[in-house]
Structure formats: structure tokens, C-alpha cells
Amino acid sequence: MSPLSDSHTGGPLGYGPLVALTSLRRTISVCAALGLLLVPGCHAVEQALPYAEAVRTSPDDMAGLQARTVTVDTDHSVVSYRYPMLGGAHPLTVETRTRMARRQTAFLEELPDRGTPELHQDATILAASPHLVGARLTATTSAGRDRTFEASTLWYDAESGEVLPWTSLFRDEEAIQQAHLALAEVLEEGYNLPPQQLPGLVGEVARGEGAEDGATARAENPDSSAPPLDGPPGEEGGEDEGPGLSDPERAHEAAQRWAGSPLQDLAFSTAGGLAVRMDPADVPAAGRVDEVLVPVAPEDTEGLLSELGYQAREAALSGNNADDDLPLGEELSAQGHTLDCARLKCVALTFDDGPGEHTDALLDILDEYDARATFYVLGSLVEEFPDPMRRMAEEGHELGNHTWKHDDLARMSGTEIRKDIKRTNEAVRELTGSLPRTIRPPYGSLDGTVRRSVDQPFVLWDVDTLDWKNRDSDAVSGHALDHTVPGSVVLFHDIHETSVQAVPAVLAGLHRQGYHFVTVTDIFGDSGLEPGDVYTDARLP
Fold it and tell me: Is 352 marked active-site?
């Protein structure tokens, strides 16, 4: 079975139908559970363990939604990920992709000297409606016989436009405490788990509740890592009336305080309650299973959920059948800003003077690493190479303006500059439907007249591979690898075959270091480029 294969769904990476089909019903002997096998008259009576069926929907199975799946297989590792595309620069897409990218970088930076470890990341939909979208992010790492699994959830609130943590589904932190107590009760009564064996925060909260005043008990036990609670808002000794966990800042602060809680990986159950994933090692009675989905009954969640939580439950129970009313972005495609490079190791590979006869081969090479690049094209070549131009746009690369035929803009009048730039912009738009976002002046040559004559940002570079001068692929790739840092803008020319031949080594070397290959717009941020300004790199201070 592959690292992310699922015995319940049957598909590799768990990409098959996932709606409410993760049942973990098992039977145990009451006598065995009670340790009474040697007691006369005790017979093995089958008892069903409590279980939940979680509503988890593959993004591939949702109307109006698309997902992107990528695998990069090298001699030192395999990484794959799938994420839902909610439109260009959609907050949930950006946050999902960024978290996956950070996890991938950490994985690649920690690779052992031997073996071929694998990291597989996936996103499934927990709830979807015109009001919200909830996503479950999973990461499975395997190295030999060792296997680790991580999961968390994100919730996009369409009203605020915020991506929120799981805590936002609850009214306040007292409600989170009550949910832990309900979970503890199921583990004790349904799985015969003694109170002293209740794991992590579930056990700490449950044991603190043994005193008349749970908050006092935790205050008297400073070794407990359970979050301190001040009581529900509005009650004596509690917080003032306020927005509770519907406030994004409070929700994120609460998520930090409750880090490690199994509620980080909750879904809504088909019964209308919660389905909380537990590590099988923490629930011995469940036997040899991949996951334990512990049910929290609907009646035990009433009054605990926030308005967003009730909306999420309603969406999940309706089958996430929102059709075209999902809060999506304007365009569902591979294009658009999808990574927050302020939090990542990003590099922008840029290619000048094309398109040309080697550009198609370059696009094939970039695709192997799911790499996005920026092509500064000459307007005079656009009609000569229409197919590579269309591929660039369709495959999510960015197109930039490199003038009509590589003239030095600093030697031209303002009128001539405007005419040249406009002519190239229109040629690109006519073929691809979009205007170039940025300009790269030939030779990097510009002056005040150039800057005043153009209402687009100018992007230069901080790493010049000198591939136009040194037609040695090894030298070109070596220079790029030696000088690239997070935020670099690297200059190549795709009209030279030796430059294109250098790219595989550059991609392989930077990928091994945990870099992500993005466009210049991505690396500077969607709103980080101002018309007329000049940019060389996006290195963080």
C-alpha cells in the first residue's frame, strides 16, 4: 500500500471518493476489555466500539471546483501534493499551498544521506457553502518502515475573507474545554480507557475537571499544559462580552494555546456531531487501524459551536452541494498568486529574448518540477512562435514585456518608448488574452525618461548567469546554484540551447534545498510592485 493509500477509498493518495466513508467500526470482547477472561462465567460478548463517519469530500468530486495534483520524483526523494484551486489569489488556496510548501521545504532540508523518503500532502473538503469552505490538510512522510502522519484544518469565512483555524468553529474557549470533556467521556466509556491514560490535552482537561472548580485546579497545577480558562464571556470572573472566537485574532491565539489538541483534526459526522481523529496508539482498544474517528454526539455539541461552526455543520450535512455558489475567486486555473513567498524559500527564474526554438523544451523541463517562470518576450517574436506563447499562459507562467525588438529604451524619446511598450503589450494580449504585468528593459538600461514613460513596474535581476556570454551549461547552472538565495531573481535567455540545457541541474539543485519556483509577481507579492519603480530581488531583510 502506498503511503497515502486508503483502505476505505481504494485510490492512491486517497484521491478517490471520500464522502462520509471512513468507518472504523470494530468489535471487542467485553471480558477481554475488562481483563476478566479467567473469571468463571465470563463469556466473550461482542460489543461495538463507538465510531464516527466523517464528511470528507474530494475536491475532484465537487461541482464547480478543481484540484491540482503534482508529483516530483527524484533520485533522493518523492514529494507530491494536491490542493483545491479556488481562483487566482484566493486566501484559502494561498494558505493551503503555502503551508504545504513550508512542510515540503522542511522535509527536503532534513533528508537523510541514504534512501528515498516520500512526502505526500493532500487537501480534502470538510464543508462548503456560499458562506465558507473548510479544508483538511494531511501530510504523510515515509522513510523505510518509518511513517508519520500530520493533519490540520483550515476554515475560510467568506464574510470576513479570513482563513481561520479550527478554534473558530467554537463559541469560546469554555466551549472548547467542554468538547474535550465530551471526547474524554467517549474514550472512557466507549473505549474503556482509564482516566489516567487519556492522552494529551484530553487527559489534562478531564483530570482538571475532577475538582469543583476546574480553573482553580489548573491554577494549582502549573505543570499542566492545558490552556488556562477564565470562564465564558459575560459570567462573573470571565471575559467581557465580546466576539469570542469569531474574532480572527482571538481564534488564532486560542489555536496556539490549544496546540496539540485532537480537535485540530475534526470533521462533522454524518450523525450531525463531530468526528475527531485520534492516533490509534492513544486508543489501544481500537486495534490495528489507520485512524480512529471518535464520535462526539450532536447533543454534546449543542451550544458549543460558533455561528461559523453551525454554518459549517449545515454545509457538511447537506453534502457540500453548493454547486456554483461557492465563494470562489474570479478564475479557476493554474495561474494566479498561490504562494506567500514572505514565508517561504522562493526563487524567480526569468528568461529573456524569446520565445524561440528551444522554449517548448524549456516548458517541458519546468513542468517536471511544477516550476513557474517569467518570460520577458520580444513583441516581434510573439506571432512567430504562437504555440510556446499560449503554453506559457495556459501553464501558469508569467509573461513580461522585453520591448519589440530589444532596442535600448534609454536612447529613445518618451513617445518612442510608449509606442514600443504598447505595441509589445498588445501583441501579447492579442495572443494570450492578458497584458504583461512587468517590463524588463534590454541590457537593464533605463533612466528617468523611461520610468516616467511607462506605467508598469520594471524588474531587473540579482543573479546574472552570464549565459549569453558563457555558452557552457555546467558553468551557467553552477553560477545560478552558487549565487541564488531566497528572494532571488535569476536571469537566463531561452534563445540559447546551452541555457535551456542548464535548467535541469538548476531545478534539481534548488529543489533539493527546498526552494519553490515562482513568477516575479509571486516573489514580490501580488501588491508589491508599483508602476515606474525598479526591482532587482525580493530578499528579506
Answer: yes
